[in-house]
């Protein structure tokens, strides 16, 4: 059984990561998954976590942290009547199905393959943010099934492989089909619930009994990181939000896109070198 002194460096590193993640999440207005995964990956590496499980652990732990925050956010948005409940009902199978498929892929994929997947998706999202135009539109209302079901499944797959709540992807989908950004953001909180809960279960199953995991881990979820990061990110996010008010929406979008490009480049470099 590890002593307090054994886990002290682990705790200190995770607290520092939580401060940074909270500030960045508040600054860019994005649920912290895309920020937490690269931070976890590097912190777990500094703490000597085996490379074979490091990326898996980062993804699973990120999704575990999203569970309470997405549930809380969904409840608040639903109370205000801003959520598209019909869309969520139509995705109650599609999105979790996609997330479970993602965890199955992750269970069989190597750390290198998961880093490449994360980097490619991050780069695509960054390019979408850089070249995005408010005038872009594909229709006046959301498409019918089976296209809508397939989009929900795809959002679940891509989000599960990135350890994120799917907000950026759902916001893009809804606004391209004539919905307001406010309704898209509110509905994304519900999408986060549909992703994070099955993702949590799937990453526990996928990593069950794997060697090389750090203390306090169940499968690919590190509960010490979860317990430390939730209060720290919730506390520091408002400070990042204060910084955000000094910038325009376009500046924030461009800033987050550059952050994703930097992370993608870093992951590409870690694979090549």
Number of strands: 2
The SSE string, one letter per element, is: HHHHHHHHHEEHH
Give the C-alpha Rg.
18 Å
Strand order within the widest sheet? 1-2
- The low-confidence runs, each spanning 5 or more residues with pLDDT under 50, are none
Number of domains: 1
What is the subunit arrangement here? single chain
What would the principal axes of the Cα set say about the shape? globular
What's the main sheet like? Answer: 2 strands, antiparallel
Structural class: mainly alpha
Please report which band the strand proportion falls in: under 5%, 5-15%, 15-25%, 25-35%, 35-45% or over 45%. under 5%
> What percent of the residues sit in helical stretches (DSSP H or I)?
over 70%
Number of helices: 11
Q: For the residues shown, what is the average pLDDT?
A: 84
Protein name: Probable membrane transporter protein
Main location: membrane
Organism: Aliirhizobium smilacinae
Family: Belongs to the 4-toluene sulfonate uptake permease (TSUP) (TC 2.A.102) family.
How would you portray this structure in words?
The chain has 273 residues and is an all-alpha fold. It has one domain. The protein is 76% helix and 1% strand. The protein contains 11 helices and 2 strands; from the N terminus they run H-H-H-H-H-H-H-H-H-E-E-H-H. It has helices at 4-28, 33-46, 51-79, 85-90, 94-108, 111-131, 147-162, 167-176, 181-206, 223-244, 249-272; strands at 217-218, 221-222. The chain has a two-stranded antiparallel sheet. The longest helix has 29 residues, at 51-79. The radius of gyration is 18 Å and the shape is globular.
């Amino acid at each position: 059984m590890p002593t307090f002194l054994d886990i002290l460096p682990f705790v200190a590193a995770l607290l520092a990561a939580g401060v940074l993640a909270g500030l960045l999440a508040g600054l860019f207005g994005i649920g912290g998954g895309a920020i937490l995964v690269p931070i976890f990956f590097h912190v777990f590496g500094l703490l000597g976590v085996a490379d074979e499980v490091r990326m898996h652990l980062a993804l699973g732990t990120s999704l575990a942290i999203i569970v309470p925050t997405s549930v809380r956010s969904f409840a608040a948005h639903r109370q205000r009547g801003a959520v598209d409940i019909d869309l969520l009902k139509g995705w109650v199978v599609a999105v979790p199905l996609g997330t479970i498929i993602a965890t199955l892929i992750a269970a069989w994929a190597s750390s290198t393959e998961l880093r490449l997947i994360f980097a490619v998706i991050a780069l695509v999202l960054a390019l979408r943010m850089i070249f995005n135009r408010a005038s872009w539109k594909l229709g006046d209302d959301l498409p019918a099934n089976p296209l809508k079901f397939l989009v929900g499944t795809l959002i679940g797959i891509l989000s599960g492989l990135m350890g994120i709540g799917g907000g950026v992807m759902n916001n893009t989908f809804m606004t391209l089909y004539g919905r307001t950004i406010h309704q898209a953001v509110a509905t994304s909180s519900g999408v986060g619930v549909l992703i994070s809960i099955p993702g949590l279960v799937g990453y526990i199953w996928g990593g069950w009994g794997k060697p090389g995991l750090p203390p306090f881990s169940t499968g690919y979820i590190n509960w010490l990181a979860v317990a430390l990061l939730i209060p720290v990110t919730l506390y520091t996010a408002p400070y990042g939000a204060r910084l955000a008010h000094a910038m325009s929406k376009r500046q924030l979008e461009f800033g987050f896109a550059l952050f994703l490009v930097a992370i993608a480049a870093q992951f590409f470099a870690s694979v090549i070198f």
